[in-house]
Fold this sequence. Notes:
heterotrimer, B: alpha/beta, Globin-like, Transcription Regulator spoIIAA, 2 domains, 11 helices, about 10% strand, C: alpha/beta, 5-stranded mixed sheet, 5 helices, about 45% helix
Amino acid sequence: MTAADSPDELVISSGDDVVRVRQLVRNRAQAAKLSLVDQTKLVTAASELARNTLIHGGSGRVLVENLTRNGRAGVRAVFSDDGPGIPDLQLAMTDGWTSGSGLGLGLSGSKRLVDEFDIDTEVGRGTTVTVVKWTR
Amino acid sequence: MGNEDSTRLRDLLGGDQADLLRQWTEGAAKPMQGRLTEAELHQTLGELLALLVPALGEGLDVEGPGYASVRALLTELSREWARRGFTPSETASAVFSLKDPLFAAADRQSAPLDTVIAVSRWVDGLGLFTFESFARARESVINEQAEQLLELTTPVVKLWEGVLAVPLIGTLDSARTQIVMEKLLQALVDTGSEHAIIDITGVPAVDTEVAQHLLKTVVAARLMGADCTISGIRPQIAQTIVALGIEFGDIPTKASLADALLHALRGSGVDVVRQQRRRAN
Amino acid sequence: MDRVPLLSLGDALLVSIQVDLDDETVLALQEDLAERIVSSGARGVVIDISGVEIVDSFIGRMFGSIAALSRVLDAETVVVGMRPAVAITLVELGLSLNGVRTALNVERGLTILRKLTAERHPRDAEDDDVAFDDHGGDGGEVMAAQPRA
């Protein structure tokens, strides 16, 4: 896997930032020539995860970059925060589960919208979610 | 060692290039059996030879930077010959047939075994690269054709004002079903139709993935404010669906396209009435 | 923060969403809508999302909130113009938008609202003057007709 160019980093600390994350991810998805439906799925997932980072993580950041693997182009977004972490990941990944801090459908739904989904979280250490979407 | 070899190879190639090219063209033409004119072959191989001589100045590594223009030409060649229906072996053979005239030249100069081995390895490298490019080129041609075929076999048909149908024929795979889904939904928006029918009479079998896609299409259509019916479910498919435990829930399914059309018409406030014949008295 | 404009179409309000919605804009929209429904006596709300490229669970919940809010104020809501890519994504996301009615476009949405209001307020529906016509479809302010005495 090689990075096609340098990654962009955005701070997520307000509702406006969530909008900025959407725009950034959309630009990267268009650059990778993802189909319209795939672009929509990726940007929607990014919106969910950015919101999670803001609401559950307190604030955080996202790193977005274009990738290539085996001749296919893709986009990777890494959301990270230094928030409380997720105590019961299994439960959080179940559909329809909502914590007081509004995780809701965010995680399980986002996972279905992307090709690769990885989550690294520990109570007291924060959370990092990595998602990748490839061209078909 | 490498430098000596590349120098010796340059000597072999440097000799009588016109004669070398002639021998090469003759050798390459034989398996082609006239599908390619000698003149064309002569031209193409001539271009290649012209690039190979200076490339040798950079060494023997076909993947190295000095061979960029050689690789570009070979890629172009593979693409062209792939389109024209030549096999990968035929294309690579044209390159491999450079060996014979080079062996002959090495023999005339009583070159050492090392040189002969170097010739063989070097041409092998070129031939293999050609084979690789060919495979990649053919894949992309196949992909293009597959896309075109997909376009042709997934028509969205207007059955009535506000009623669209997609009659699917043949085996469904995940990719094709997704394309059908997107086309149908877009057509609903473009035509302002509120009823969609996906007819699978012509589909012999449905697997879980395809069934899921069909279901998602129906739900998506509903979200958009239209309704979607699936018709033409054969008994075998019905059994498969039940066996796989797929829940069709409250999604309307009709045995035939005709039933589905009637259902859609009624949904849009239209009814079909049998005409009464008046008997003449 | 942008404020989403509200247009009167007969007895309905048209909300045409063209911008990327952030939290503040959503809250402002809900406030404006509540106020306008009451002040105009509107019976229906049409939310046109044909210009919306992304609907995430937050926006989805907003639709639900607006529908519930309107119902409390005796108005019905229809969301119209959902793009295919958005619909496909919502299905994958698992968002069902329960309790929110949808239609293909503004025209269909108004038709649905007309039927719904006729069901809920049969006496008003007999009056020809009270209608959800959009008089040519180009929106704009139209005075709500007064019911005959």
